[in-house]
Amino acid sequence: MTELMRVAFQAQSVFFRRSASSFRILHSSTTLQGSGGKVIQVASIAQNPKYNPSDLSNDVSVLTLTENIEESAIAKAIHMVESHVAEGNRKAVCTGWGALSSGGGSPNELQAVEVEEVDRTECNNSYNGGITDTMICFASPGKDSCQGDSGGPLVVDGKQVGIVSWGYGCADPSYPGVYAHVAALRTFIEQN
Prior knowledge:
- One of its GO terms (biological process) is proteolysis.
- This is Peptidase S1 domain-containing protein.
- One of its GO terms (molecular function) is serine-type endopeptidase activity.
- The protein is mainly beta and 192 residues long.
- The protein contains 2 helices and 11 strands.
- The strands form 2 sheets. It has a 6-stranded antiparallel barrel with strand order 6-7-8-11-10-9. A 4-stranded antiparallel sheet has the order 1-4-3-2, with no helix packed on it.
- Strand 9 (153-156) and strand 10 (159-166) form a beta hairpin.
- The longest helix is centred in the C-terminal third of the chain and has 10 residues, at 182-191.
- The protein is globular and about 45 Å long.
- The mean pLDDT is 88.
């Protein structure tokens, strides 16, 4: 019996398209064309019942794949951060194929950007109180996740701490990137 692989993903991407058959995962490729990579069908989707499309809190779903993703030089498993890890002053790497600027085009090659954690109170003030306990914020001058990166991982020291969720524009110094807070959502992810 084949063990199935699970992937934590953002809820807003699957909220209106619930059919698992409409999703596929491309892995082991650094290009959008998928050269050298493999496409795997999604078998099922567990959407967080607490997901709120109005404020984007609890923005996580768990995708179960029809087969395992085999680790390679390009594809490595990323474990979730422990729920008791201290927050503050962390540096993270965010990867994706999203736009390189707000409203800009998407690159063909996978991109990576290093961002720094933004104080929760400061981020909450930037978004007029819109940051919930299931969100964390990261930004760096001129660097951010952008449209098309949604659902991608935010990684600190080899552990996934966030899932690209939302923000105003891209790399706007007044508005940090907002990520689903994996430590706060860990119980749902583990149970699904």
